[in-house]
Structure formats: C-alpha cells, structure tokens
Amino acid sequence: MHNTYKPLFSIDPEVTFLNHGSFGACPNEVFDSLVNFQRKLEFEPVKHLAYDVFDYLKKSRTALSEYINCHADDVAYFPNPSTALNTLIRSLDLNIGDQILTTNHEYGALDRTWNFISKKRGCEYIKLDVAIPLKDKELVIESFRRSINKNTKVIFLSHITSATALIMPVKEIIELAKENGILSIIDGAHVPGHIDLDIRELEPDFYCGACHKWMCSPKGVAFLYVKRKYQHMLEPLVVSWGYKAENPSHSQFLDYMQWQGTKDISAYLTIPDTINFLKKHNWKEKAQYCRELNLWAKNQICKALDTYATGDDQFLGQMTTIAYKLDDPIQDLIDFYTKYKIQLPFIKWNDKTFFRISIQLYNSKKDIEYLIKSLLEFRKEK
Predict the structure, then answer these.
(1) d(C-alpha 77, C-alpha 79), whole Å
(2) Cβ contacts of residue 209 below 8 Å, gap of 6+?
C-alpha cells in the first residue's frame, strides 16, 4: 500500500521516516491548499484579514466540528496544543491547596506548564505512577479513583501519551471526574486522524487536539474544545481587539480566542481540504492498516532486540514505544540519524531509555526490517 501513498507526501526519499508522531507530514495537495490561502492573503491583505477570514474560519470550524462531533462554536483554533492548553490552564481559578491529578506519562511541555502554574498559585500537580508495560486499563482508572479527594479540582490526562505512545481510558476517567464534580481536561494531541474521536460521546469539559499530526494538515493547527458552560472562564493568552470587542459576535469565547494580533492563519483555513483528503482516501481504513503494521513491527522489533514495548496491543494505535539501551539519548540520536538516515525519537522516560516508532501510509515492512538491522548494529558498536 505504501508504494501508492508515498508519492502523495514530500518526505525526503533518502530518509526512512518513522517519526510521523512528532510533527506529522502534510500531503502535497493539502500543502497546495495552504499556499492558495497564502496567495489570497498576499493578493489583498486587508480584505482577507479584516473581512474574509472570519467566514473562512467559520467554514473551517464547521468542517472540524463535524469531523470530531461537536458544535462549531465550541472549538477555537490555536497554533499548537501547548498554546491552547496554556490559554486554558492560565484561565483556571486555582488556589492554594487545590490539586491537579495526572499521570507520569504526560507531555513534558505540559508538565512544565502545570509546574509553572502550581508555583504561582500554590496548587499541587500530582503525577500518578502508571507502571509499564501497561496491561490492564482498570489499574489506571483505579489509580485515579483512589487518589481523588476534596481538594481535587482537575483531572488532566493525555488521550494518547507522547513518550510512551499509550491509548489511555479517557472515557472512563472523564466519567469518574463527572461523578466527583472535577474538571476534565484531555490532551488529545495525537488523536484526530489516528483513532476515532467523538466529543459528544466522550463529553469532556475541555479537549485539545492537533490537526498537523495524524490528520496531516499543514503545521501549526490545533484546536481547543470547551464545553459551553465553561467558555466564559477562558481569558485570551494575548489581549487584543477581540477582548471586550467594539462589535462583539454571538460568542465571547470566539472573540477572545480567534483574534490575537496579525498573523498568517492560512493553515487553519485548510482544514476543510484536509478532511476532504482524508475522506477521499478512506483514512479510517488506512489508519487500521497502519495499526496492524505497527503491531507487526512491535512484535518483530521486540523479538529481534529481546526487549519490550510500553503496553499491550489494546493500548496501541499507530505508535509504539520500545525499551532500548542508550547512554546519551540526544547524542545517540544524532549519531544514529547521521549514520543510518532513520528518523525516529530516542527518549528518556522515568530514568529508562526508549525509542518510538510511528507508522503512516508511506511506511512499509522494509522500513522496519532496516530499522531492526540498524538498531542491532548500532547497539553492537556502542
């Protein structure tokens, strides 16, 4: 299948690209959509930014909302999940003694955000230890259930973890939060276009996702869904014309979030074309093919290297994180890429070292066979 789809992307043919999970990869026809919107911007900048862009944004949010199943007025675009979640986290009314429950699998940038807020507000960011290899989702759910107390104000959880590539039981955790009157914030950066996402079914209070990863949009597109009753809480990260707007729209949430100064938001406007690309190529079926290739790859790698993955198959989609001995992950990564031209992350997590594979349609079994050969050789040389 990869021979059919590889030419649709612009990835360097000299590189074995097994790192779609970091920043995604944009198909050529979707990238062309980006360039078309940039041309519109440059052709008539004032008309585009002052007038037309709001209709384009509405069309884009509508397409996205249908794709993830929520109302178009309940999502706003951001350049990345870090910005979206910083906007949300800084808006929360957190005080001394309040607790945020999470796991030790969360994305490092967001750990830093929560630690920053905790230091300023006097709240506590509590990371529950979820051991690997993960074999039973009830262990995750029970860990949260046991840790909730009267000071717990927020549960923050990745839908798919970044470093360890595990699909977490977010539906059950959201229900647990509801039962206890706790806000649920889900970091779904790796979810759209990877596994099914249905906001109405999950019913989180807040959900953040990236479009430039597995949806394959141009870089710099993320969204934040906010349940209607909480939208009044959000403050803009940058105060600009949308704040206390002279001509407010029907939504303060959108006024505050959509306009924060002059910038090229062409990537946001490509989402209808991005979704059309996914539909045209029956992406849900293709994602299942990639998952099957990922599980095959996991088994082949673990057997050849006599190692283990961070979780059982039930917790894996198109990514797998696998234990691998490294002395210096940063330098080792540079040396490995330089010698073998294989793009994948080397990771240090909880004082252990790993690598993570991401499988997209442009990948093949040959890529995995070359990876195994290279990892064995690299380990032997070290």
Answers:
(1) 7
(2) 68, 81, 188, 189, 191, 192, 197, 222, 223, 225
Q: Which residue has the tokens 């890429």?
A: 337
> Would you state the structure tokens that stand for residue 104, as one six-digit string?
């030790």
Place of tokens 């195994």: 372
List the one residue out of 190, 189, 185, 207 whose CA is nearest residue 198: 207
**DSSP percent split of the chain into helix, strand, coil, nearest 5:** 50, 15, 35
Cβ–Cβ < 8 Å for 266, 220: no
Query: What are the chain's domains?
Result: 2-18+282-381 (3.90.1150.10), 30-278 (3.40.640.10)
Is the pLDDT at 1 greater than 60? The verdict is no
- In one-letter notation, the amino acid at residue 298 is K
Is 206:230 a contact under the CB 8 Å cutoff?
A: yes
What single-letter DSSP state applies at residue 359? -
Q: For residue range 209-264, what is the model confidence (pLDDT) as tens digits?
A: 999 999 999 999 999 999 999 999 999 999 999 999 888 999 999 999 998 889 99
Beta bridge pairs of residue 77: 223
